[in-house]
Amino acid sequence: MHSRSLRARSWALPTLLVALPAIVLACSSTSAGRGAPPVVAAAPQTHTARAPAAAEVQKAAQARKPSAQASDVERVLHLAATDNRVQEHLRHLTKEIGPRLTGSKRFDRAAEWCRDQFKGYGLDARLEKWGEFDVAFDRGRQQGRIVAPEVQELVFQTSAWTPGTQGAVRASALLEPADQAGLDDLKGKLAGAWLVRRAERPDGKLRRAIEDACEAEGLAGYVAGARGDLLVMFGGHKVKLDKLPKQVRIQLRHDQHAALEARLAGGEAVELEFDIENTFTPGPVPCFNVVADLRGTDQPDEYVVVGGHLDSWDGAEGAQDNGTGVSTTMEAARLLAAAGVKPKRTIRFVLFGGEEEGLFGSEGYVRDHEELLAKTSVALVHDGGGTALQGIAPDYRMFPDVEAVFAPLVASHPKFPFTVRELDALQNSQDSDHAPFLTAGVPAFFWEQSEEGYEHVHHTQYDTFETVDPEQQKHSATVVAVAALGFANLDHLLDRTTLQEGKPLPRRRMGVQLDGAKVTEVTQGGKAQKAGLLADDVIVSIDGVAVKTQGEVVSALQKGGARKSFRVQRGGAEVEVVLDYTDDAAEKERAERAERKAQWLREHPRKPTK
């Protein structure tokens, strides 16, 4: 998933609150996991009951084995409850294959394995090329440590498509000079050394002079500090074999870098050793999506697309971003095939490549399948990590059909409530593989999730299998399977009138990073910074609506008028902060669409929900 200033997606009212049946939890653990936030909006219909014990749920699931006359949905739900293998898929991806950088050998292994799995389920599966990279990049051994005056292991990363050390390199650590005199003193000593960047960098002119001197003398590499505990992975794939980057650049965990800088500033002699195996391979490097079809019976040339992105950054295991979305997609396919369902439309499962570098795989799919877009009812993308899928946000014309699709999930278990939230028009966050479909006029959705804890693992060294809650993953795979089948069996394609009236509107953005409702970072020049919102502020309410989670903050931000009144806890006091979107280009169109919705609903009154 691409980075963005506020990660959760937009939600809006009115809502339909639904919950998975108790049977779905038959294979779940008894831990609370990292559960979804409470749903505070009133719902047309709500069914609640006490959460049954695991043994009780298992017994109930076995007692409710589908009969020969059971519906497709009943068979899928029973299978999902009693034989859910989503974590098996995720474990293989992360532990047996590992991170899957686009164009790397590991990505190719993963793509071939996923294709073969789909084939094993009885689907028509293949690899579809969407483009090429000029150079392949693969990462091997990554070791670093202080070797003198004592030994200490170091936690670090290098960016993708950057050079390694070509073996272990042990050398003196030198502190970046703070002025020209300091640079003059270092000249003649830089060859083969490790230059430790200062946290407070010198001015641009001196930085350029330092780089020139280091290049001229043959520096071993630079050692910079991360902003905190997180080592954020990134890299630029646009490299040419005859112009490969030559300088090793290491990002060290903040606390270790700060300690190293202090030691060098105090005059202590320190030696570092890094052994970094980064390999470039000449291209062209073909890049693929994995595509698998469960053929429809009545309208096989109409499609429901379900997927996530197979690629990941390569500093960890690519578990939450996006092994979770891959594994729920694969398990949904397996559940549907194993249950023997015969959907009316073709359900197409797509695992996209190149998402992290620019949505390349999904853009390539939309480009290469242009003739199918008018017959594609919906695209559903899971790319928000391992928290439970808890909602979807259609526009008002789609709402009745979407409500019908998720009706089978209305039942007695409240642990993972699922909410259908109605929008004036679909919104396009532009940051995952649903975006190219929306741009092309296809109804497309990014599942709503709490994304609790996601910032800690997203693109960092902590994105590992162990951070994913199995219970929530099993739930999500079930939701994907039921949704795919429901959309495939609608009597008609999903309404796309509002998409034809204009492009999806961008979400209102604050320009912050959130941990729940707490502001952890404020982007310079963003709405929040201009309004006076500060890091460590805790948002209490927006326009009088109490918020406690990141999802609730985003939901409240998208609703109502252009001036948003925030109450925030700052220190021991509550203060008011107003974010004003009045002059934003999208606000006039947002108001016009709200009026069109009101007019349409007056002309098409809805029957009360039973």
Task: Quickly describe the structure.
The chain is of the alpha/beta class. The chain contains 18 helices and 21 strands.
Explain how this protein is built.
The chain has helices spanning 54-63, 72-82, 86-97, 105-120, 180-186, 204-217, 254-265, 319-338, 355-358, 360-368, 399-406, 435-439, 454-457, 470-488, 497-501, 527-531, 550-558, 585-603, and strands spanning 15-19, 124-148, 152-153, 156-157, 169-175, 194-196, 221-225, 249-252, 271-294, 299-309, 345-352, 376-381, 391-392, 417-421, 444-446, 512-515, 518-522, 538-542, 545-546, 563-570, 573-580. It has three domains: 15-134 and 284-501, Aminopeptidase, CATH 3.40.630; 150-269, Glucose Oxidase, domain 1; 512-582, PDZ domain (Pdz3 Domain). The strands form four sheets. Strands 2, 3, 4, 5, 6, 7, 8, 9, 10, 11, 12 and 15 form a twelve-stranded mixed sheet that branches. It is built from 18 helices and 21 strands. A hairpin with a 2-residue loop joins strand 18 and strand 19 (545-546). Helix 2 (72-82) packs antiparallel against helix 14, helix 3 crosses helix 8 (319-338) and helix 8 packs across helix 14 (470-488). It is globular. It is α/β, with parallel strands linked by helices and 610 residues long. The longest helix has 20 residues, at 319-338.
